[in-house]
Amino acid sequence: MSDVIVRPVEASDHEAWAKLYRGYRDFYKKPHNPDVYTTVWGWLMDPAHETRALVAELNGSLVGLGHFRRFARPIDGGYALYLDDLFTSPEARGSGAGSAILQGLAEVARDEGASLVRWITADDNATARSVYDRLAKQTAWVTYDLAPAE
What we know:
- InterPro entries: Acyl_CoA_acyltransferase, Bact_Acetyltransf, GNAT_dom.
- This is GNAT family N-acetyltransferase.
- Residues 4-150 form the N-acetyltransferase domain.
- This protein is of the alpha+beta class.
- It has helices at 14-27, 34-45, 97-112, 126-135, and strands at residues 4-8, 52-58, 61-73, 78-88, 117-118.
- Strands 1-2-3-4-5 form a 5-stranded mixed sheet, with helices on both faces.
- The protein is globular, with a radius of gyration of 15 Å.
C-alpha cells in the first residue's frame, strides 16, 4: 500500500476518472449516460458543491476513486462523511488502493471534525466487504429507499 498515493481529484484527472467511473457503473449494471458523467464531474469540479472525490494513484495512473460528501447528524449535533462510491480498477485490486482511499477518508474526517465515515454496499459484494470488514465496523442498520410521491 505504500506505493499508492491518495489525493483529491484534479481537473487534469478527467479522462482517467471517467474510465474508473464507467467501470464503477458497469459493476452496478448502470447504463452509460453521458449526462450523468457530465453532471458528476461538474459537481466534483465545483468547490461550492457538497460532492468531493479522492483518487488513488499507483505508478502514475489513477486506479481508484471515492466520491464522498459531508452530512449533518442531528442525533449528535455534528457532521460525518458519507462515501457514495468506492471503486478500484480490476487490474489494481489487491494493491491496497481501496484501503488507501478509506484511510484517506478517515484522515479527512479527522481533519474536518467529522464523527465518522459511513457507507453502504451490496450484501453480495464479498470482495469489497472483506476490505471493509478489516477496516470498519458493520452496523446493524437496515437501508430503505422511498420513491418520490406521484
